[in-house]
Design brief:
The chain is mainly α. The protein folds into three domains: 1-55, no CATH class; 64-265, Up-down Bundle (Growth Hormone, Chain: A); 266-489, MFS general substrate transporter like domains (Growth Hormone, Chain: A), CATH 1.20.1250.20. The two termini are 44 Å apart. It has 19 helices and six strands.
Length: 489
């Protein structure tokens, strides 16, 4: 058999097939047409268009050192940029909606919360199909397509906000298109997971997720400044300002990212995950962490505008910012003390933050209100990281009885492999289910305002939900006598 080779790719530049242990060397093609790549060990040629890598083995230390790490890093940072823009587009309406009345739009509070909530509803729904798009079309190809799809919501926003007489249905449809940005998270995470070895996957995915989350903070900081530059309020600039960056992301992905032939869809992992009770327990818990982050991030500018109209909206970005940068911290702390403990502590802090917001509303204290929400955001970020950390631990621990009962090493390895696949499916499902919190929280605030004329009932409801989630996490994963109590999850 031929010796294994280092990564091969092409389209203008390619790495030659070389035995493992040698450094991939670059050569340029003489023609514009892409060259065929050879599937190593099969003796047949597979013609592809675009940049395809036919052999990818990041678990091989030599392969990883002699070119694999460099290729993976290049794909990671372009993916972070594209996902950053996805989150930015997803959050555009959160900062545009509070400005609509000043631009002449006559909208009820309920309508305004609908405009904030519907992008999260669409984005959450798109996450599962976006995950499967990467193995079907290729990570590089889908990053180009998903980036270009962001031109639809940005252009639609720029059009509908120019006329205050635009029917609400059309404005809502334009807001729904922003959900394309929410789907990008799932495909980006799935794609990067194929590039990295297990020993480095957590760090890579953490960087990818945190970089994407920062898009929410960035757009909430930039839009209030851009739309008031010059005279009056030009809301269309909120959409127009994104278009050059979207085109740049698509170009960078087309020119520098790669597709992996080895990235295969595995519907069985999703099927296995759907049959596992822990998938739905963790998805429920993730609504409380990530769902709270995206829900509060979407609603926060609107809450500030409604409760403290004298305050500039440009400070709203701080909530999403602290929630984004603390996400990796949740995973780090969870590695030391266990994901369940950190997640439960996050729910407790979120409940305290919501209680502080209630007291602030009753005393009309902006400092207390703002500080309480920053506490909330910090807790959601830490909870995001810790809940994701629980997933592999839960599925590995659940597989231990099957592993112990296996008669030979092959059967034990097969049991561990099934657990890893189910965990991968759970990550996709939990990410989608958790994102629905971005719809539920704004709609909760809308219902509370409509029925009681106050945000307080919604905040009390959220506190109660956090208490239930904490009890569920404790009962399933920490309570003495539970099946997984001794697993340190």
């Amino acid at each position: 058999m031929p010796a294994p080779t280092s990564p091969t790719t092409h389209e203008g530049e390619q790495y030659e097939d070389r035995p493992t242990g040698t450094v991939p060397t670059r050569s340029t093609t003489a023609t514009l047409a892409p060259r065929a790549t050879t599937a190593v060990g099969r003796g047949t040629e597979r013609r592809r268009s675009g940049r395809w890598i036919d052999r990818w083995d990041p678990e091989d230390p030599t392969f990883w050192r002699d070119g694999g790490r460099k290729v993976a890093s290049r794909n990671l940072w372009i993916s972070v940029f594209a996902e950053f823009l996805g989150f930015a587009v997803w959050a555009l309406w959160s900062i545009v909606v509070p400005q609509l009345p000043a631009a002449g739009f006559a909208l009820t509070v309920d309508q305004q919360f609908w405009l904030i909530a519907v992008p999260s509803l669409v984005g959450a729904t798109l996450r599962i199909p976006y995950t499967f798009a990467v193995p079907v079309l290729g990570g590089r190809n889908w990053t180009v397509v998903s980036a270009l799809l962001l031109l639809l919501p940005t252009a639609a926003l720029a059009l509908v906000v120019q006329n205050p007489g635009t029917p609400f249905g059309l404005v809502l449809g334009a807001a729904a298109l922003a959900g394309f940005g929410g789907g990008n998270f799932a495909s980006s995470m799935a794609n990067i997971s194929f590039f990295y070895p297990e020993r480095e996957k957590g760090k890579a995915l953490g960087l990818n997720a945190a970089g994407g989350n920062l898009g929410t903070a960035a757009v909430q900081l930039a839009v209030p400044l851009v739309i008031v530059a010059g005279a009056g309020i030009a809301l269309e600039r909120a959409g127009l300002m994104m278009i050059p960056f979207v085109v740049l992301a698509a170009f960078l992905a087309w020119r520098f990212m790669d597709n992996l032939s080895t990235a295969k869809a595995d519907p069985r992992s999703f099927a296995a995950a759907t049959r596992n009770t822990h998938t739905w327990i963790i998805s429920f818990l993730y609504i409380g962490t990530f769902g709270s982050f995206i829900g509060y991030a979407g609603a926060f500018p609107m809450l500030l505008k409604g409760q403290f109209p004298e305050v500039t909206l440009s400070i709203a970005f701080l909530g999403a910012l602290v929630g984004s940068v603390t996400r990796p911290l949740g995973g780090i702390v969870a590695d030391r003390v266990g994901g369940t403990r950190v997640t439960i502590a996050s729910y407790a802090v979120m409940a305290l933050g919501a209680l502080g917001a209630i007291l602030a509303l009753q005393s009309h204290s902006f400092a207390l209100f703002f500080g309480s929400f920053l506490v909330l955001f910090v807790a959601t970020g830490i909870g995001n990281g810790s809940t994701y950390r629980m997933i592999p631990a839960v599925f590995q621990a659940s597989a231990l009885p099957e592993v112990a009962a296996a008669a030979d090493p092959v059967e034990r390895d097969a049991a561990r492999a099934r657990a890893r696949k189910a965990a991968a499916g759970c990550i996709g499902i939990a990410g989608a289910v958790g994102a629905f919190g971005g719809f539920l929280i704004p709609r909760g605030f809308a219902a509370s305002t409509s029925l009681a004329g106050s945000l307080v009932p919604a905040l009390w409801t959220f506190i109660a939900v956090y208490a239930v989630m904490a009890v569920v996490a404790w009962a399933v994963y920490l309570r003495k006598g539970s099946a997984l109590a001794g697993a340190g999850i």
